[in-house]
């Protein structure tokens, strides 16, 4: 499968604008390990192989465990995620599939209990940005390079 469209090449300004959002997310107060779990889980839900590959490798480079990376798709059953991580993973799922039920009051109430308004805004930005990247990656048929 070859890439259909290269946004970086064909509309560099649009890609740079998305990159600016990504930078804001990376520089937020949200811990880097949680940022990568957000990106891995959303990329998995969106079936974006390119982003899933990239963020899995970044998480490993930053010290995340293989167990937590592999287990993220079964986070409800896995014992190695904190309450703060669990509500964020639920939020990732609800935002990624927002067309189904929106963001539930229960998830938002738990977010308010565990995170400040500033942090909730940062989480929203992180989740929206990776979803945008995923959609561009899938539409463009971006593929990761095979490891050697």
Would you kindly provide a written description of the structure presented here, covering whatever features stand out?
This protein is mainly alpha-helical. The protein has one domain: AhpD-like, CATH 1.20.1290.10. 70% of the residues lie in helices and 0% in strands. α3 packs parallel to α6. The mean pLDDT is 93. Residues 12-94 form the Carboxymuconolactone decarboxylase-like domain. This is Carboxymuconolactone decarboxylase family protein. It holds the Pfam family CMD.
Short description:
The chain is mainly alpha-helical and 148 residues long. Helix content is 70%, strand content 0%.
- Structure annotation, total helices: 9
Helix content: over 70%
Q: Number of folding domains?
A: 1
The helix-and-strand class reads: mainly alpha
Global mean pLDDT: 93
Shape estimate: globular
Q: What is the N-to-C succession of helices and strands?
A: HHHHHHHHH
User: What is the CATH third-level topology name?
Assistant: AhpD-like
| Biggest beta sheet summary | none
Number of strands: 0
Spatial gap, N to C terminus = 19 Å
The proportion of residues in beta strands is under 5%
Task: Give the low-pLDDT segments.
Answer: none
- Any guess at the CATH architecture? Up-down Bundle
Overall CATH class: Mainly Alpha
CATH homology-level superfamily: AhpD-like
Radius of gyration over C-alpha positions, nearest whole angstrom: 15 Å
GO molecular function: peroxiredoxin activity
Domain Carboxymuconolactone decarboxylase-like: 12-94
Protein name: Carboxymuconolactone decarboxylase family protein
């Amino acid at each position: 499968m070859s890439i259909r469209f290269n946004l970086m090449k064909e509309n560099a300004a649009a890609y740079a604008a998305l990159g600016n959002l990504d930078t804001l997310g990376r520089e937020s107060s949200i811990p880097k390990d949680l940022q990568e779990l957000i990106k891995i889980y959303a990329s998995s839900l969106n079936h974006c192989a390119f982003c899933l590959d990239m963020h899995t490798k970044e998480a490993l480079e930053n010290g995340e465990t293989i167990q937590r990376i592999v287990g993220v798709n079964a986070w409800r059953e896995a014992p190695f995620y904190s309450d703060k991580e669990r509500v964020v993973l639920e939020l990732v799922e609800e935002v990624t599939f927002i067309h189904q039920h929106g963001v539930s009051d229960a998830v938002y109430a738990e977010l308010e209990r565990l995170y400040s308004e500033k942090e909730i805004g940062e989480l929203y930005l992180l989740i929206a940005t990776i979803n945008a990247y995923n959609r561009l990656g899938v539409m463009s048929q971006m593929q990761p390079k095979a490891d050697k």
